[in-house]
Amino acid sequence: VLCATLFHHSNWRLPLKFEHIMRPFIITPDVHWMHHHTAISDTNSNYGSFCTAWDRLFGTWNKNYRYPHMPLGVHGMRDQNLIELLVLPFKTGK
Asked: Distance between alpha carbon 75 and the CA centroid of its chain, in Å?
């Protein structure tokens, strides 16, 4: 599972032909990136870590492709440095 997670969280661009063949079955970086998009409809999709079967089964499959300069992160949250990110889980919500 760790290798699959490292793969789909990578910034690799697979050759387009290979991407088209793999994406219906395997969580590729392009498939998983939609989960990190700032748009809530995209964020609530593509949760899988290896195969797309679970997302298809539970209705969370998103077939959209990532695009250049796609905004990633939590909507409304500013960019943070490493220290701020490490402290974040210990802060109380407002």
From this structure: 14
pLDDT (tens digit, 0 to 9) for every residue of the chain, 94 residues total? 788 888 887 878 889 899 889 889 988 888 888 888 888 888 889 988 889 999 999 999 998 878 788 888 776 777 778 888 888 888 876 5
Rounded CA separation 46/28 (Å): 10
Contact 29, 10 (CB under 8 A): yes
* Stated pTM of the model: 0.69
Query: Torsions phi, psi of 15, nearest 5?
Result: -55, 140
Q: Around Cβ 91, how many Cβ atoms within 10 Å?
A: 8
Contact criterion met (CB below 8 Å) for 91 and 83:
no
The candidate with the shortest Cα–Cα distance to 28, out of 44, 17, 41, 39, is: 17
Which residues, other chains included, contact 61 with Cβ-Cβ below 8 Å and sequence gap of 6+?
45, 46, 52, 55
- Is residue 67 a contact partner of residue 88, using CB atoms and an 8 Å limit? no
